[in-house]
Specification:
InterPro entries: Formyl_transf_N, Formyl_transf_N_sf, GART, GART_AS. Its EC number is 2.1.2.2. It comes from Pseudolysinimonas yzui. This protein is of the alpha/beta class and 194 residues long. The chain has two domains: 1-100, Formyl transferase, N-terminal domain (Rossmann fold), CATH 3.40.50; 105-135 and 148-194, Formyl transferase, N-terminal domain (Rossmann fold, 3-Layer(aba) Sandwich). The chain has six helices and seven strands; from the N terminus they run E-H-E-H-E-H-E-H-E-H-E-E-H. The protein has a seven-stranded mixed sheet with strand order 3-2-1-4-5-6-7, sandwiched between helices. Strand 1, helix 1 (13-21) and strand 2 form a beta-alpha-beta unit.
């Protein structure tokens, strides 16, 4: 059984998908803790599912490195097999990435390497492309530049707004993330080989 720690900054919709998948006794992974860099709405999922939560507020530390050291200390308490950044909107310091990689995953609302960064959906619309996508990657020290674990295309429809397109991408992100966790648990994906 894979032990997952999920880090969030917002509502935790991808986290919710993992929690719902793990309600099936056959699903080979369980979220053991939920962490955030702020008082995120998605922490309520922890209360609902009886999963411990922790917050390491970015602004409470004088440097990003000190914040990262405390975040890593919190994560390590849970003996996780995988750490998943799920809408976690902070760049991790290199020391944290090297401590957790390659078992450190992130979801991104674009078909990487297209449209990396915090505004992938907006950037895709601005570029006028006919399709974008969703990706699950191994986190490295770059911005959305790590090895791609899985991805799927999502069409951009006429009249799409950023919100409407992002909602469709999130559905695909959730499916991809749950499948990737399943494939890692069943040894169909070995993150060390990517």
């Amino acid at each position: 059984m894979l032990r997952l720690v999920v880090l969030i900054s917002g509502g935790g919709s991808n986290l919710r998908a993992l929690l719902e998948a793990s309600e099936d006794a056959e699903f080979p992974a369980r979220v053991v803790a939920i962490g955030a860099d702020r008082d995120a709405d998605g922490l309520a999922h922890g209360e609902e599912y009886g999963i411990p939560t922790f917050v390491v507020p970015f602004g409470a530390f004088p440097t990003r490195e000190q914040w990262g050291a405390e975040l890593l200390a919190q994560v390590r308490q849970w003996d996780a097999d995988l750490v998943i950044l799920s809408g976690f909107m902070r760049l991790l310091p290199p020391a944290v990435v090297s401590a957790l990689a390659p078992n450190l995953l992130n979801t991104h609302p674009a078909y990487l390497p297209e449209f990396p960064g915090a505004h992938g959906v907006r950037d895709a619309l601005a570029a006028g492309v006919s399709e974008t996508g969703a990706s699950v990657i191994v986190v490295d020290d770059g911005i959305d530049s790590g090895p791609i674990v899985a991805q799927r295309r999502v069409p951009v429809l006429p009249g799409d707004t950023e919100s409407r397109l992002h909602d469709r991408i999130k559905l695909v992100e959730r499916e991809l993330l749950v499948q990737v966790v399943l494939d890692i648990a069943n040894s169909h994906i070995d993150l060390k080989d990517l």
